[in-house]
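Hypothesis: this fold can be encoded by more than one sequence.
Test: take the structure tokens below, design a sequence, compare later.
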């Protein structure tokens, strides 16, 4: 399969890139930095140097592919606007591909934060009640889902939990903060995070990309329902020097971090029955139970960077 991937240098996108390559697919990736593009070539990826906000830089390359995976996100104020522009451009490329009578799929990366605080366990048919940080996201999901109604264009929305593995992301920050002696927890730490191991998540992308019946929403999480306090405790126990853990009231955190604080304070129990129907299942079942392994991965990833 020929796959066009955005975000191939990012946390999720790099895991998806590697899983696609391991499965023998051809990957063409949008990369904005020419130096990173060189590194992509060494990994066997065909880089296209461009930017999400310049559809002309990647539209025709995307149009040649049987599958488009959008895993990029610009971490800036205009992030949601850029995402919308990218969805329009990528769906346009997919529609042009389909107009030639060839099937094509489009996979959009969302996240479990669109579920807000869950009431009971939220599966893929639960109503979206997004935390303010991602209030715009359900609209983008709907655009993608609506575009998949035709015969030749299949669309899917993947909602990862908080990703762990390697040195990046929120759990990577907890590992780093613990090593530096101070971990901040918003609230009392009794709230539960929905988390997923990066390689398990990448495996789900490959399954959705390659199974012709896979359309609609797919959750990806390890279903451990871990309390934040338990994750932090487990990480602290593995640190060379036990770090201080400071509980920051939500109001105080919000004043410093804005709506990101509310996202970190979410209490979520998430289930992934539609993902499991594709034969998917997590191989790692918790953060707390795998801290030694995650620390090894963390160190290896930092050395390789
Ligand atoms: N990480 C998580 O735990 C998690 C969980 C659930 C959902 N998500 C969602 O997954 C998506 C990806 O997250 P991530 O953690 O992988 O992010 P990330 O590590 O920050 O990666 C973002 C990627 O997007 C690329 N990018 C940013 N702006 C771009 C632009 N203008 N043009 C082209 N490429 C651009 C970056 O390229 P450069 O290398 O050039 O910066 C990078 O490859 C986001 O929508 C996020 O909300 C993440």
């Amino acid at each position: 399969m020929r796959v066009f991937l955005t975000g191939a240098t990012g946390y999720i996108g790099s895991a998806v890139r590697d899983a696609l390559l391991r499965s023998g697919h051809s990957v063409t990736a949008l990369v904005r930095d020419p130096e990173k593009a060189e590194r992509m070539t060494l990994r066997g990826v065909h880089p296209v140097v461009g930017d999400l906000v310049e559809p002309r830089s990647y539209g025709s390359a995307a149009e040649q592919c049987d599958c488009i995976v959008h895993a990029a996100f610009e971490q800036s104020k205009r992030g949601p606007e850029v995402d919308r522009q990218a969805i329009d451009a990528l769906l346009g490329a997919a529609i042009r591909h389909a107009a030639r009578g060839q099937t094509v799929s489009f996979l959009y990366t969302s996240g479990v934060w669109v579920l807000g605080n869950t009431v009971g366990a939220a599966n893929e048919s639960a109503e979206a009640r997004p935390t303010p940080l991602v209030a715009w996201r359900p609209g983008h999901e709907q655009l993608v889902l609506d575009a998949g109604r035709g015969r030749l264009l299949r669309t899917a929305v993947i909602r990862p939990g908080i990703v762990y593995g390697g040195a990046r992301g929120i759990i990577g920050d907890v590992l780093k903060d613990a090593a530096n002696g101070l971990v901040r927890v918003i609230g009392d730490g009794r709230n539960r995070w929905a988390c997923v191991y990066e390689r398990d998540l990448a495996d789900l992308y490959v399954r959705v990309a390659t199974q012709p019946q896979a359309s609609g929403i797919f959750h990806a999480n390890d279903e451990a329902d871990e309390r934040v306090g338990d994750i932090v405790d487990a990480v602290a126990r593995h640190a060379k020097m036990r770090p201080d853990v400071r509980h920051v009231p939500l109001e105080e955190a919000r004043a410093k971090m804005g709506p990101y604080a509310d996202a970190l304070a979410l209490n979520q129990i998430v289930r992934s029955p539609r993902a499991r129907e594709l034969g998917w299942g997590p191989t790692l079942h918790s953060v707390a139970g795998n801290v030694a392994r995650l620390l090894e991965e963390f160190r290896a990833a930092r050395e390789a960077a």
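The radius of gyration is 19 Å. The pocket of NAP is lined by residues 6-7, 9-13, 30, 32-33, 36, 51-53, 71-75, 82, 109, 111, 160, 162-163, 168-170 (CB under 6 Å).
Hypothesis status: open.
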